[in-house]
Amino acid sequence: MEPDRPLRLEVIVGSVRVGRFAPVVVDWLVERAGAREEFDTAVLDLADASLPQDLSRTPEVDSFTDRIGRADAFVVVTSEYNHGYPAALKTAFDTVKHQWRAKPVGFVAYGGMSGGLRAVEQLRQVVAELHMVSVRESVSFHQARKHFDPQDGAANDAAGRMLTQLAWWAGAVRAQRAHTPYPG
Which of 21, 60, 91, 178 has the fewest other C-beta atoms within 10 Å? Predict the structure, then answer.
């Protein structure tokens, strides 16, 4: 275990729709995470992941699982579809089992009037079943296509607090895993 190496933060892009707004939000978040020295940030776009709906094992699934295993923390960037989260996110969470466990996750949501918050509340239930640690702070962009502002003070403040919470949890869990495997 290398305690001085940066924490590996995977930003998961949940929307796979054509014409999605996700890249705008992801770029905004990656800029903020990239400015923090405690993180080595990468983007894991589910539109590029070939995860089978039947959850069968393939070389692509093995590669995806290994990448999840190497991560110390996650931020899920999600839209809200029909008061829920995208199906691609559920497939991603269900495809991997043990590699999600005992790792922190934060959420950045965007959408219409609710700003994706209903999707986040459902995702918190899913990640709890995976033994993940959902940090309290999240970011939400209401009516993002019309009103997205990368200089929004409240969003930037919330992102900073979320990233700080992720770093704390990821560091604590990394230190604990170094001498005691997670019992789940």
Answer: 178
Say if CB 128 and CB 105 are below 8 A apart.
Answer: no
CATH number for the domain running over 7-177:
3.40.50.360
CA angle 40, 44, 49 (to 5 degrees): 150
**6: DSSP letter:** P
Q: With 0-12 CB in 10 A as exposed, 13-18 as middle and 19+ as buried, what is 99? A: middle
Task: Write down the pTM of the prediction.
Answer: 0.95
Looking at residue 3, its pLDDT comes to 62
**Cα separation values, 147 from 113, 140, 151, Å:** 11, 12, 11
Can you read off the two tokens belonging to residue 97? 């089992």
C-alpha closest to that of 82 among 47, 114, 45: 114
Q: Quick one: which of 75, 82, 62, 61 has its CA closest to 31?
A: 75
What are the residue ranges spanned by the domains of the chain?
7-177
Type of residue numbered 126: V
Name the token pair of 142.
Answer: 């209401």
Instruction: Please give the Cα distance from 39 to 43 (Å, whole number).
Output: 12
Residue 152, classified by CB atoms within 10 Å of its CB into exposed (0-12), middle (13-18) or buried (19+), is: middle
d(CA 95, CA 52): 8
